[in-house]
Every structure is written in C-alpha cells, then in structure tokens.
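Example (one chain per record):
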Amino acid sequence: MRLFLDANILFTAAHNSNGKAALVMELGQAGLWRVVSSSYAVEEARRNIARKYPDRLERLETLTRDFHLASATRECDCPPGLPAKGCPIYQAALACKADVLLTGDIRDFGFLMNDRDKAEGLLVQTVAEFLAGL
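Predicted structure:
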C-alpha cells in the first residue's frame, strides 16, 4: 500500500513524535506500507515547522530523509471545488499512484474524504480515519 502524506501530516509527525501521524511514518519506515510525499509538501512543512517550532526542524529532516518524493503532473485535472493550493498535493498523490492521500486539511479536501469516486480512485482520509480502518 502506498500512502501519500500532505504537508500537515509531515508537520504533525515532526511536532508530536508520539502522535498518530508519527506512528504512520514509523510503520512505513518499518515496511508496513510505502510512505510518499512531494517536495512541495515537504517544503511547506519545513517552512511551518521553522516558523512555529524551530526546535523540531531536525526531526522533520530525519523523518523525510529517505522519502520517495513524487512530482505533481499537469496531466490530471483537479476535482472541481479543490482550491488551487491543494492541486499540487492531489496531482502528486495521483502521479505516484498512491492508494491513500492522508491529510488533516478538511477545509480543502473534506468533500473528497472517503469517496474514491470523487477522487479518481484515490482514498482521501485523515490519519485517524486511516488507522481506524485497518
């Protein structure tokens, strides 16, 4: 299974090493699934961690050091209603053939949550929803 992690998941995992996002990343590093993100998401997480919790920047670097980074592709359209800032995340998740896009951004991605038909077969979930479904 391939999980694509949005910037807010990376941020949360770096900020809270005992939380669910960190657990998902640790299980991925252990080989339970493949964890993927994008340079766009990593950079957004890096900017936000540096601004809010600079002491956790090294943790973010460690967590993302061995990541496979997918690139957004212009070949796919974003679903109507997805704000422009969410498109690079959505497109990169599709480009890397992710099974699940994990995000905490319910405001932008909420209408796609748990509905593969609206997201071209991609399952968009929060970390809590993903873990509850295992």
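Caption: DSSP finds seven helices and five strands in the chain.
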